């Protein structure tokens, strides 16, 4: 089976005045279709940069990024936009719903940019909303929903385009533990249905829910394996 | 995403911020209203002048002979000869002798009534119509009969509508009324064209104490031959006086087109000045759109993350700017028409003159097109700024 996501000695270097910051430094890794992977790390570990590159919001400084076998490291703005639209489903910590649009309008948005007709947009958006169990709120504005519900809307929005990968950036970060767990269970359910889920978080307890953990530190991978062993590695690092 | 969807989105954004949108549009609204009212006023003024000139006859040439104080003067017969020799240019000619003096009817004296000595063709020349009797004839002129034709105002006001056969006195001489004209103006009034008396020019010349007739009116065959017709008369007069300052040939038609073009220039300048506020309005739109782009940075980031391309964002903001200013333009057109009809009514009350303030359709359409164009022009820069935003930075924007 071909990997869905593949980094080959990929680096992202930011120029901060005089100093060079190697946010991601020569990472090589793969994620297979149908996996549920958590990318964990403290702030500054390079996990956000990783997410931006996986999500095609940014391009690497060097190395290669293959998404479904296509090299996307050197695409321009509009080509990246088109890939984000078709292959990536974003879930953000702050939900990032448009406040003036209804639940339906928000979920339809990526389908609008995909150029779908009105009836097909509505049908696919409604299906996605049904999956997250918010059909009764379909015409509400985001401000009329609880945080957990808003995050479920953003899950529906990520699902609507049937993307290759669902990319969740601290999806529980703004939620209390109970609703956070609901959202995590939803992600697990999506994974069980065959979706590839990549979860970015700093929280080990949440990362532990994934199938595999990739731990980053200072732009390098320090652990890549099953969740149970990950904590030990962190403890070792702390001891050093 | 289609233009129509962008348009719907723009409309809902505009409606979501009503007060701000209205304030943004204000510059455009004021600009469009002033352009429309000024052009309407100009059209009304021009129409008013054309109408009043046309009622005087645009196919007429007026010749005034000042003379040079020399012994030789052009005679009435020589003037008639010009018409006889050039039937291709002229239909007729009439000497005109204005009499300054009092008209006395019974024992009352009237100063407002104009008295003019004319030839027998004057009636046809001015397209006046007789309601009773006949006009001054060739015999009246050659035999110097003391006969008069009166306007409808004179007949109706001073003779209770039955002036025919009655008499009146001009400078002490008694005249018999042989004809009454139909009303020329819609509402005959004192001092107007219907408050007039016409007598044979030979009699009038005698009354003024001079036999020199200094004013003539020529009726042209066609208004298009003004130049050639004037040349013919000029040649004849120059032969006598050898001095172009000794006479003048005035064409009402030429005068009219001269005044029309003067008004046109005036209106264009005024409209251009009013148009400056359209530009100011455009800058106002640009300003608000720039603010709006800053405010909606996060929204732009979300849209880009979800797959909006540069041109999608660009299109959204340009269309929003264009829609804002186009709506402003439409409001301006509505207000402009309302204000124009109000201005027309005020002019009637204040100046007692009927000037229709008539905004032309083309000026309304032009104002609309210009305001929409200004929206696109001034919306471009903010839209470009929005389109170039980096999605990562935009998503982090608080």
TrEMBL record, chain A:
Cited InterPro entries: AAA+_ATPase, ABC_transporter-like_ATP-bd, ABC_transporter-like_CS, ABC_transpr_LolD-like, MacB-like_ATP-bd, P-loop_NTPase
Keywords from the named record: ATP-binding, Nucleotide-binding, Transport
Origin: domain of life: Bacteria
Lineage of origin: Bacteria, Bacillati, Bacillota, Clostridia, Eubacteriales
Record-level Gene Ontology MF annotations: ATP binding
Protein's recorded name: ABC transporter ATP-binding protein
CDD domains named among the record's database cross-references: ABC_MJ0796_LolCDE_FtsE
Native source organism of the sequence: Fusibacter bizertensis
Domain ABC transporter, chain residue ranges per copy: 5-240
Transmembrane regions: none
UniProtKB/TrEMBL annotation, chain B:
Signal peptide bounds: none
Subcellular location: Cell membrane
Main location group: membrane
Domain ABC3 transporter permease C-terminal: 272-391
Topology in the lipid bilayer: Multi-pass membrane protein
Keyword Transmembrane: yes
Pfam families, sorted: FtsX, MacB_PCD
Keyword annotations of the record: Cell membrane, Membrane, Transmembrane, Transmembrane helix
Keyword Nucleus part of the UniProt annotation: no
Residues of the MacB-like periplasmic core domain: 21-231
Listed transmembrane segments: 21-42, 265-293, 317-340, 360-381
UniProt record similarity statement: Belongs to the ABC-4 integral membrane protein family.
Protein name: ABC transporter permease
């Amino acid at each position: 089976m071909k990997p869905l996501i593949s980094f080959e000695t990929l680096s992202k270097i930011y120029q901060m005045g005089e100093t060079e910051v190697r946010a991601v430094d020569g990472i090589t890794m793969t994620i297979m279709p149908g996996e549920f992977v958590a990318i964990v790390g403290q702030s500054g570990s390079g996990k956000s940069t990783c997410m931006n590159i996986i999500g095609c919001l940014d391009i690497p400084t060097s190395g290669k990024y293959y998404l479904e076998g296509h090299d996307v490291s050197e695409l321009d703005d509009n080509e990246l936009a088109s890939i984000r639209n078709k292959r990536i489903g974003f879930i953000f910590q702050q939900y990032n719903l448009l406040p003036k649009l209804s639940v339906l309008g928000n979920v339809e948005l990526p389908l609008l940019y995909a150029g779908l007709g009105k009836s097909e947009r509505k049908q696919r958006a409604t299906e996605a909303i049904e999956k997250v169990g918010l059909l009764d709120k379909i015409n509400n504005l985001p401000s009329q929903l609880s945080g957990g519900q808003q995050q479920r809307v953003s899950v529906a929005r990520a699902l609507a385009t049937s993307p290759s990968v669902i990319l969740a950036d601290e999806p529980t970060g703004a939620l209390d533990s109970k609703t956070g767990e609901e959202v995590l269970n939803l992600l697990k359910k999506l994974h069980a249905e065959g979706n590839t889920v990549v979860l970015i978080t700093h929280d080990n307890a949440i990362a532990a829910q994934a199938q595999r953990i990739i731990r980053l530190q200072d732009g390098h991978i320090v652990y890549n394996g099953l969740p149970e062993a990950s904590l030990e590695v962190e403890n070792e690092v702390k001891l050093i | 995403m289609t233009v129509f969807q962008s348009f719907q989105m723009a409309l809902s954004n505009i409606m979501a911020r009503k007060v701000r949108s209205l304030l943004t549009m204000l510059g455009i609204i004021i600009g469009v209203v002033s352009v429309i009212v000024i052009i309407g006023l100009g059209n009304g003024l021009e129409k008013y002048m054309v109408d009043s000139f046309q009622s005087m006859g645009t196919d007429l040439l007026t010749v005034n002979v000042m003379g040079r104080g020399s012994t030789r003067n052009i005679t009435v017969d020589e003037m008639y000869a010009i018409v006889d020799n050039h039937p291709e240019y002229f239909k007729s000619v009439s000497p005109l002798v204005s009499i300054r003096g009092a008209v006395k009817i019974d024992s009352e004296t009237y100063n407002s009534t104009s008295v003019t000595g004319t030839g027998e063709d004057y009636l046809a020349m001015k397209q006046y119509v007789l309601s009773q009797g006949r006009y001054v004839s060739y015999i009246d002129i050659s035999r110097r009969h003391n006969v008069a034709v009166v306007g409808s105002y004179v007949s109706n006001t001073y003779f209770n509508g039955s002036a025919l056969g009655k008499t009146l006195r001009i400078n002490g001489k008694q005249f018999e009324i042989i004809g009454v004209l139909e009303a020329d103006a819609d509402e005959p009034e004192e001092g107007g064209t219907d408050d007039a008396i016409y007598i044979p020019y030979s009699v009038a010349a005698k009354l003024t104490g001079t036999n020199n007739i200094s004013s003539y009116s020529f009726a042209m065959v066609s208004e298009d031959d003004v130049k050639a017709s004037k040349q013919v008369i000029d040649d004849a007069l120059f032969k006598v006086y050898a001095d172009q300052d000794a006479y003048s040939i005035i064409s009402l038609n030429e005068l009219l087109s001269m005044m029309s073009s003067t008004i046109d220039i005036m209106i264009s300048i005024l409209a251009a000045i009013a148009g400056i506020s359209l530009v100011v309005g455009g800058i106002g739109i640009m300003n608000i759109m720039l603010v709006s782009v800053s405010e909606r940075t996060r929204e732009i980031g979300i849209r880009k993350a979800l797959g909006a391309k540069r041109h999608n964002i660009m299109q959204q903001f340009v269309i929003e700017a264009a829609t804002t200013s186009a709506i402003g333009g439409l409001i301006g057109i509505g207000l402009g028409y309302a204000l124009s009809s109000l201005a027309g009514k005020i002019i009637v009350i204040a100046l007692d003159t009927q000037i229709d303030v008539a905004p032309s359709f083309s000026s309304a359409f032009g104002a609309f097109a210009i305001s929409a164009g200004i929206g696109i022009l001034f919306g471009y820069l903010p839209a470009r700024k929005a389109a170039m935003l980096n999605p990562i930075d935009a998503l982090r924007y608080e």
